[in-house]
Amino acid sequence: MTRKWIGWAGLAALATAGFVTQAHSAGWGQASDNSAQNDPLRAALAPDAVARRILEARVNQLGRGFNGDVGIAVREVDSGWTAAWNGERLFPQQSVSKFWVAVTAMSRVDAGELDLSQRVTLRREDLTLFHQPIAQQVGAGGYTTTLGELMFRAITQSDNTCNDAVLQRAGGPEAVRELIRRNRIEGVRFGPGERLMQSQIAGLQWQPAYSVGRAFYSAREGVPVDRRRQAFQNYVADPIDGASPLGLVDGLSRLQRGELLSRASSDRLLAIMSQTRTGAQRLTGGLAPGWRIAHKTGTGQVFGGTQAGYNDIGILTSPRGRHYAVAVMIGRTSVPIGQRMTLMQNVSRAVIAYDESRGFGRSNFSH
After folding, report:
1. Cα(357)–Cα(47) distance, rounded to whole angstroms?
2. Under a CB-based contact definition with an 8 Å cutoff, are residues 101 and 168 in contact?
3. Are 301 and 160 in contact, with CB atoms under 8 Å apart?
4. Distance CA 207, CA 196 (A)
C-alpha cells in the first residue's frame, strides 16, 4: 500500500477529529481523475485541502486556548487563502501602527514628495514618551540625522519620537488614514499619534512636560484609579488605533506583492522590517532554520496587571521563497509574557508545518 503524504496514522487522526467529514461536506479537494471524483474520501483528502483544514484547526485551537482576547490571521500571500481566529475584530495596534506610518512615508517618496536623505534636527520639544532611545542623543543643541534613519529606528527599535517625526513629515495622521482609505484596506484605524493616544489611555491630557524623564509615569500615578480604569477599559473596548488581523494581513500581503508601493520602496521597507530588534521571542522565536521574517511589534500599557495590546505582525518567508502574512494581536490579557510569546511562536510553527505539508518537507502539526 502506497504511503500518502500525510500518512495513514494522520488519516486516522483526521477522521477521528472529524476533518474528513468536514472537508467533504464543504466541497474541499478536487480529484484529478474520475475514480477520485467517485471516491469522497480521496477527494476530501486532496493535499492542499487537508493542509488548509489542519492549519485552520490549529489557528482556532491556539486562539480558543489562549487566556485573553486574541485575534490571529495567516494569509498565503501568493494565493490569498487565509485562516483566522477573531479575524474581523478590532484590536489595539499600539506600535504595530508604525507600519502604516512607514508605508505612508514611502508612498510619498514614490510620489516625489519626500526624500529620505532629508536632514532632520530633533530638539527636546520633539520628544514623546515611553520607548524613545534617541532621546539620549538629543542634547541642548538637538540631534541631526536623516529622515530615512528616523524611519529605520521607528521600525527596528520602535522609537516613538522617531515615529512621530516621520509621521509629521509624511502628512500627519490624516495622511495615514487617507492611504488606508485609498487602498481600500478594511478594518484598520489610525490614532492621533503616540502623545495624545497614550495620554488618553491613562486618563490624562498630553502636556509637553511629560516627555522629560519619568514625568509621564508620575502624572499617570496621580490619576484617580476609577478614572484611569475607565479610560483603560474604554480604549480596550473601542481602540482608537484598532485593527483587525484580516486587515493587517491584507496590508502586509499587498506590501509583499508590491501593490501599496513601488517595487523598490516595498523591498526597502521589508528589508528594514527584517532588521526589527524588538520581540525577538514573539513570532521570530518559532522560526525554523532557513526561515526569515520581516515584522513589527506592538506593546501597550498595563493597568491592574492587565495589558492592552501585545502584538506581532509580519511576513514569514520559507527557504523556498513562499510568503505568509501573519498577525497575532493580543488585545487584553494578564497571562505571563512567556505564555504570550509561546502563542506567537506556535503560530509561526503552524505556518511552517503547513508549508512543509504542501511538498517542501516533512510535516509536523503537533507543536
Report:
1. 8
2. no
3. no
4. 9
CA distance 305 to 303: 5
Joined together, the cell numbers standing for residue 351 give: 505556518
CB neighbour burial string for 220-244, b if at least 16 within 10 angstroms, e if fewer: beeeeeeebeebbeebbeebbbbbb
Asked if 100 contacts 183 with a C-beta cutoff of 8 angstroms, the reply is no
Grid cell digits, residue 259: 501593490
Distance CA 204, CA 197 (A): 9
Q: How do residues 315-338 score in pLDDT, each as one tens digit?
A: 999 999 999 999 999 999 999 999
Confidence of residue 42 (pLDDT cuts 50, 70, 90): low
Distance CA 209, CA 214 (A): 10
Domain residue spans of the chain: 8-45, 69-96+242-367
Give CA–CA dist 286/284, Å, rounded: 5
Q: How many CB atoms lie within 10 A of CB 111?
A: 9
Tell me which fold the domain 69-96+242-367 belongs to: Beta-lactamase (3.40.710)
Q: Dihedrals φ, ψ of 13, to 5°?
A: -65, -40
Residue keyed to cell 512567556: 338
How far is residue 170 CA from its own chain's centroid? 22
Distance CA 20, CA 24 (A): 6
Structure confidence by residue, pLDDT tens digits, 47-81: 688 999 999 999 999 999 999 999 999 999 999 99
Q: How far apart are CA 90 and CA 241, in angstroms?
A: 9
Cell 502624572 locates to: 219
Phi, psi of 195 (to 5 degrees): -60, -55
pTM exceeds 0.70: yes
What is the four-CA torsion angle of 173, 174, 175, 179, rounded to 10 degrees? 110
Residues in Cβ contact with 240 at an 8 Å cutoff, skipping those fewer than 6 apart:
189, 191, 192, 197, 200
The full 3-state SS of 161-215, as one line of letters, equals HHHHHHHHHCCCHHHHHHHHHHCCCCCECCCCCHHHHHHHHCCCCCCHHHHCCCH
In one letter, which amino acid is 355? D
Q: Within its chain, how far is the Cα of 283 from the centroid?
A: 9
